[in-house]
Amino acid sequence: MPPQTAPTARGSRFVRLLPAAAAALSGLLLYVSFPPRTLWWLALPAFAVFGWVLRGRSWKAGLGLGYLFGLGFLLPLLVWTGVEVGPGPWIALVVIEAVFVALVGAGVTAVSKLPGWPVWAAAVWIAGEAARARVPFSGFPWGKIAFGQADGVFLPLAALGGTPVLGFAVVLCGFGLYEIVRLAVRARRSGDLRRAAAVVGVLSVAVPVVAALAARTLVGAKAETGTVTVAAIQGNVPRLGLDFNSQRRAVLDYHARETERLAARVAAGKAEQPDIVLWPENSSDIDPFVNPDARAVIDKAAKAIGAPISVGGVVARDGKLLNEQILWDPVKGPVDTYDKRQTQPFGEYLPLRSLVGAINEDWTSMVRQDFSRGSEPGVFRMNGAGVGLVTCYEAAFDWAVRDTVTAGAELISVPSNNATFGRSEMTYQQLAMSRVRAVEHSRAVTVPVTSGVSAIILPDGEITQRTGMFVAGSLVQEVPLRSSQTPATRLGVLPEIALVLVAAGGLGWAAVAGVRARRAPEA
Length: 523
Prior knowledge:
With 523 residues, this protein is α/β, with parallel strands linked by helices. It contains 15 helices and twelve strands. It has helices at residues 6-32, 43-54, 59-77, 87-111, 117-132, 157-190, 195-214, 248-267, 292-305, 353-359, 361-366, 398-406, 426-441, 487-491, 494-519, and strands at residues 227-234, 276-278, 309-317, 320-329, 333-339, 378-382, 385-389, 411-413, 444-447, 455-457, 463-466, 473-480.
């Protein structure tokens, strides 16, 4: 056989590198589908290309191609994690999280040889998300496919089966699109149309869309147990980034001042009197239980507005450091508390402290004392309304939102502090989570943030008011109270378990089929 010429060799190398490049670029395309952009539909071609890259390959190839897809997706999505602390933690986080996507890639290649492979492959993706939401260090669900769909046609599926069903529908539709294109190209080239496979491809696209349209009947914004006028306070911070922590008194003063400004507007007839007032996480990092000055500032603000305030504080109690929401009555003072249950690793507590300190002492100094976790869901009774508390990072976790609703929340507050992450996309990604949660549990969601973006969201996911970033302001609106439970709320983790079992069944089938194929020549 004659040796390859230079152009032929270059062409051969290009063909070999094409799947790797396509995997990374399709991951990047998936990132572009996420907020703050409203290009949710780009998730479909992203998974279509991912399906093309993986189908029919070995599991080892799937492992590598899946890792490249994960890097393409997560590197830009999570860049905000390195805004103030440098690229080290950002790169380390992505390197670890992309391993889960790599394992998904290997799983998809295995089930891609099965009949109806788009269904098995989409379930494998959701199984990967389920694992990533739980390990290591209690998990990191950021980047769930559902969180990129707040503006999409599939959003009502969140009310049917939560984020797993919503994500499954999107991934299934993407893989189904590739299957349709693959079969169409095959039929055009050879005239061979496999009808059963074609039916699976069409159904993989049609069923999620039809189901999403049907699920719209589950989405509503009407009041069921009355209404309440809520005020979300955004006091702003003195400066961007980690330095805001050194200005704790200023942050408290800013939120008290903005509340008193709202009180003046109410007195002048320029704003509606709120029934409840919501301050963000870290709005009082000075413990008001031991600091009389901080207590006096909050008490004055509560009396001025004449309504109970949920105050985000950092509290030391019984030797524990707690990220706490404090229900502050204008007459009685502090009457109830909620302690954040899902604390953020490397932000609020430091896993592997001795190892991290050996690598870089500066990292351990940023988290001198670990925050302790609360144990009970938080629902404040505020002027007769059940207000569920989901503090910042907790909004990413299915269980943390659901059990707040099952504990009696008629609306949800997501007090947050995003000042550490500057003007990055983080706040928009988190806001999209709150919109998905609103539809998932059919509750109005209020998002008070220290520096923005604060927002008021109706139970159908619509943002009715929002602030800018790094400005002071307040949002006041009458919102519906709801007590009914969506199928997603009632079912809880069951849809996710079912999809994980589907994935396990597909992988088991693929393993058995592989063993039989290897034994066939010997027989």
